[in-house]
């Protein structure tokens, strides 16, 4: 009975290493787009989303070290203290790796709120390191990025799944 | 328990602890010491092409809007010509004044005014970091940009270059909470230091006594005492003063005059003549002055 509620699991093709790298570079590119004001505050963290997706679907390939390296690149891009994003991404990747069996049992829409919690946890770490560095509280719109990230999750993960879709129907003769 | 041959390297928890420690150490080292400059520069060179690429949509948008706005060009040209004429007239007066000023200074045997050179730069991106007020400019050490140079727009001071990378440079805005600019009130020559508050379009003058002669609307310009900012650049206008006799200091809030946060083209100033020459005996005295400095006065970046 319990199994009947599970979404239909598709059998996907193995992921190419180059596709993972390409998706991470594209995520970095999206994070580096120049924006200002509310658009900047609500712009989701594409690197966090992409790393979470790969940690859940390919836990053997993408893990904490990749998250750490992407975090360092993001720290340079943002001019933030070296290691701030790295710390946040490391802990987010850990959470995703621990939860990946549980999360992959849910459909994309049901995964989204759980991903949202991980995103908020990551932002809290960045906020905490910022406050320890002597900054002011930036205001509640700081967390808008987690909300938009949560809303984007189903679309982003179905897009990252497209290249792994089997080309032809394997049941056909 | 997993058999040995199914394991993949160190356990998840061990990796987590390792990388968390590593990032904490990196943050501490980056905040306190200057060892990571080369590493930051290497990483910056890696993401520079991506930064350029991420700017392409903006560049295309600018190009398209330029094409569509060509109807206004004639009008804009006429306005600019008129402005140019007015400016020329004022510039002629300025030249005469400059010569006169130099002669007077020579007579009084005071130091000559500072000459500056400007390099035009464009904002590449505004970092997605609510804790720091910084912008990334598209000129770096390859174009001769050094940390410490002053960044202005057509109206006043924007900030200061704090990190130089090969192709880009990082500018800390005057509104950053760690940033201070030595200023002077134009009306009466009162010297003070204006500091950022980490908020948009807000600066404050700290440690001014309640009875200080300062008024709303007072213009603050750089005093040039620090040897970093050339003197006379407009910085801010006093917007609000709260005098409460129960406190020792007045709360003075100012608004920056320059378009901190909404300009795309900026000027990076480099000084051709050093503002202040360090006297030889000051270098000998340095150990003592350093001891005094440890007493708690924090240096502004």
From TrEMBL, chain A:
Name of the molecule in the record: Rod shape-determining protein MreD
Top-level division of the source organism's lineage: Bacteria
Entry-linked InterPro entries: Cell_shape_determining_MreD, MreD_proteobac
Topology term for the membrane: Multi-pass membrane protein
Location relative to the cell: Cell membrane
Keyword Membrane: yes
Organism: Nitrosospira briensis
NCBIfam families: shape_MreD (TIGR03426)
Transmembrane listed as a keyword: yes
Automatic annotation (TrEMBL), chain B:
Residues annotated as transmembrane: 12-31
ATP-binding found in the keyword field: no
UniProt keyword annotations, A-Z: Cell shape, Membrane, Transmembrane, Transmembrane helix
One of the record's GO cellular component terms: plasma membrane
GO biological process, one term: regulation of cell shape
InterPro entries in alphabetical order: Cell/Rod_1 (IPR042177), Cell/Rod_MreC_2 (IPR042175), MreC (IPR007221), MreC_beta-barrel_core (IPR055342)
Domain Rod shape-determining protein MreC beta-barrel core: 125-269
Annotated NCBIfam families: mreC
Similarity comment text for this entry: Belongs to the MreC family.
Annotated function: Involved in formation and maintenance of cell shape.
Protein's name according to its UniProt entry: Cell shape-determining protein MreC
Organism (species): Nitrosospira briensis
Organism lineage string: Bacteria, Pseudomonadati, Pseudomonadota, Betaproteobacteria, Nitrosomonadales
